Amino acid sequence: MPQSTIRILFRFLGSMNLAITLLVAIAIAAVIGTVIQQNQPYPDYVLKFGPFWFEVFKSLELFNVYTSVWFLTILGFLVLSTSVCVYRNLPKIMRDVSDYRENSQRHSLQKLAHRQKYQSKQTLQATLPILLWVLKDHRYSFRQRQDNAGLIIAAKKGSGGRLGYIFSHVAIIVICIGGLIDGNLPLKVAEWRGKIAVETRRIPANQISAISTLSADNASFRANVDIPEGDQADFAFIDYKDGYLLQKLPFTIKVEDFRIEHYASGQPKSFESDLEINDAELAQAVKQTISVNHPLSYKGFTIYQNSFGDGGSKLNLKAWPLLSAMDSSKQLQAKVKQFTEVSGMQLEISDFRPFNVKPDPSGEKKFINQGPSFQYKLRRPDGTANEYLTYMQPIQQEGRWFFLSGMRSMVSEEFNYWFMPADSENRLARFMAFYQSLRDPEILAAIALQTASSTDGAKQSAAKDKQAVAKFMLVLAQQFVEGGYDKITANIEQTVAENQRQEVLQVYANVLQRLLKNVYLSVLQDEGLDPKQALTAFDAQFFVDAVEAVNLAHEYATPVFLELEGFQHIEATGLQITRSPGKWLVFPGCLLLVLGVFCMFYLPQRRLWLLLEAGDAGTAILLVGSALRNQYDFDKEFELIKQQLAQNFSTVQ
Amino acid sequence: MTMDNTLQPLYQQTSYFQLRTGFDWLWSMLVLAGATYVFAQYHALMDGYEVAILLASATLLIWLGWSWSTLKSFSLSVAAFSLLAISIYGSDLAAAESKFLLKYLFASQSAIMWMSALYVMATLTYFAHLLSGGDFIGKVASSLTWCATAMGLVGLMVRWRESYLMGSDIGHIPVSNLYEVFILFSIITALLYLHYEQHYKTRSLGAFVLLVISAAVGFLLWYTFDRHADGIQPLVPALNSYWMKIHVPANFVGYGAFSLAAMIGLVFVLKSQAHAANPDGLLQSRLPDLALLDDLIYKAIALGFAFFTLATILGALWAAEAWGGYWSWDPKETWALIVWLNYAAWLHMRLTKGWSGKPMAWWAIIGFFVTLFAFLGVNMFLSGLHSYGEL
Ligand code: HEM
Fold this sequence. Notes:
Chain A: Keywords: Cytochrome c-type biogenesis, Membrane, Transmembrane, Transmembrane helix. The structure holds two protein chains of two kinds. Chain A has 15 helices and 27 strands. Chain A is α+β, with helices and mostly antiparallel strands. Among the domains of chain A are: 93 residues, no CATH class; 93 residues, TATA-Binding Protein, CATH 3.30.310; 137 residues, no CATH class; 132 residues. In chain A, strands 14, 15, 18, 19, 20, 21 and 22 form a seven-stranded antiparallel beta sheet that branches. In chain A, strands 2-3-25-26-1-27 form a six-stranded antiparallel beta sheet, covered by helices on one side. In chain A, strand 6 and strand 7 form a beta hairpin. In chain A, helix 7 runs antiparallel to helix 14 and helix 10 crosses helix 11. Chain A starts with a helix and ends with a strand. Chain B is mostly helical. The termini of chain B are far apart. Protoporphyrin IX containing FE sits at the interface of chains A and B.
């Protein structure tokens, strides 16, 4: 390249306009990065933006702005531009800092805006101490120079302001370089050269292929791993694009225990893990407890308490089939994050929580603990699944206790809760007995016939009619169990003329109600209660709630209800493991930046000159000054100095 | 003999320490005594960093008192009232309801209400001063602002104590949620303003600066009465760190100074507009001249920028300890960077390109909205690791 092109390029790189453009560009990139949530799973973006914009945004790397090629390029240019700027300004500023400008010429100094003339009646030698004293009083340092007209005293202060420029701008360069080292630039390069490939499947760590695995001597990374209590790991995962990479560690981390401590109000107070680091190079394992804000450092690796989750808790479940009859409830054992077979479906438990601390809806206390819950999917043979969230203990609602279970068919939806009343012993048994009686054709037929016979007009009617009524009851009950009142109403709307619907509905409801009541009474009888005695208020209310639960059961849409009977809680701690050698540049850089910025603002450079000329009548004095910034304050200081001099010498206009 | 032989300086002193008055030394003794007492009383609860923070705060307070005389008597009254309130509390939180002085004056929520009322009154009084030009009214406005600020600080001090009375594991410095930092914001902005008011001997800016504080007070009242967010909550584990004690206040010096710059920017724009319309108008004669306003905007932004730099770095250091990395591109962090870059660009334009006047005033006003988004908008519209104080 010809000399002049290089010079032009150099000037461009060090120019203020480029610097400001880069600053603004980074700010805009940062805005984009906060408006579009970063590093989410790709399917979420497809849902949010649609397939077209997803592709557009993806190719612009808008889902990973801060690691995108274009963003790193801008940062690179900022480093370059600031470096050139410092390189170009350094000599000038160093000269400025060390130079008192005592060699300035009288005629150029005389043009400065801040100036005042005085006349001393004494000789130059006698006048000098007073002048120097005033300079010292304002903390100026100075140099003197003899010229043929007399003496020039050049004074300055606040050179820190100029050094501040160097400190802060060098700091920017240092911080950016440190940040680039710790960013995933090296990963990008390796990917680009085909050395690594991202893994997107959810597979066990030992099945991950070598091309998705990073060796233990990777100098800089940020990775996560969940380790169940009692378990250990010598690897962690780096989130990368739409998948992850496996990062090997040169030691194993064993988790002995994970604890959550709570405040009296129930909110979490601390998350702690007892760790044991085993390293072949160590004679003895390192044991340390880490918590949020208190990580463990070992050999340049830092291990943080990052999150927590379930580490494969063992759950004792009771499966209540909702589509078939009684007596078939089954005990089963399942583990969180493992698959189990239930009634021809696959049970996938995703989470278990021993506590559910929620704001108290009654407002009496701030928070209440709603007890354990577990969340799971039931996957049908065709691959589709509904998701459920079920609480172990009944929860109080308007003074009554209900077992709660939520269902949703799409992850993006809220759970739709099913409320099943708890019996007097706080169990689910009575409701299930009631529900399963309604599902059992034999029991139901017997009770229907008995109900049909016990109605007012029944004694006179023929057995055939009773049979017919009972059969009709069975149909109603079936409709009710399958689709609630809605289904019965829908049926009436199809078969009955509009002007009679209201009446027919009333009759149907009465009939159904009588049947349900008798089914309920038979359940109570099975429990050992005397059917002739009047219902207690509790049992009567239970009936109302149970009927409502059956009414809504179809929305719950599950062939089997899983009741949580017991559990062994095993937690997993979520650790973040990092290695960031760049911080040894970033942290000193930050210190330099703060120092530089404060110097720039609060040690502004100021200069004064005193031009002395010996004459017959004594000494002529010219005071001049200049300041780079903070003119306002300099004006004031100059005013003060002028007054001080005016008290000692006579002012000359 | 001529007068030339005798030196007649305006100041006899040469050393910074020789410049200190008796009150200055008394002040430093009192601050040191206070710090020593706090250390003796609470060192069991403090780690090494917190002792260092205590020491640094005491030093800073001494220096501030030396540099700004009014601050000494102000701080002493705040300390006296806070100690009074704390001693009335004893060890019984319920005293807030039964003791008259606490219930109506010094219990943190009462003190904050007083602060709010006084700031609003001060705003109105400053406007009256601006319109009437009355000296006395101006003094009243200043006094009201001082009183409001004192009440706010007493409120925070008492709240700090109250949090420990709720339970020793609940106790923490009251800068942990939006309610508390809004109080901090009001106090810091007011103190910065009062400093400039004294330094430049002009009260005509008060009306505008206090407007922003009144807005903060409005938010605070809404937050209290509509959201009931004024209670003391235990800290989430991530906030339970000594870093909070320095990161948050440093940040709010930044926010306060940027707001101040914006309001003075507004005055600048109004004044130059008014000048065009009517060179002899009221605003024209009452408001300080444009050169001073321009200088003030620069000073406020420089101060804000310096502290914001410090605060962001402290935040990064904290993040390195709590989140596993000094920079995570979390939305709050990112917006802090945006704010910082914006003012960096502002400073470059002014200092290297020599821009000044109206464009820079407008830019300072726009900067305020960028800052506001970083402060509030991020919590409202974006999700991230900084999840305290949801709206
Ligand atoms: C992120 C990048 C940068 C930041 C945060 C930054 C920050 C600052 C700040 C705060 C000042 C303060 C002014 C003062 O009061 O003296 C300043 C001055 C200055 N900056 Fe930058 N700067 C950056 C990049 C650059 C670049 C790339 C250039 C080169 C073109 C540059 C050139 C200058 C110059 C020439 C001054 C004036 C120095 C003086 O006269 O004292 N800056 N910068």
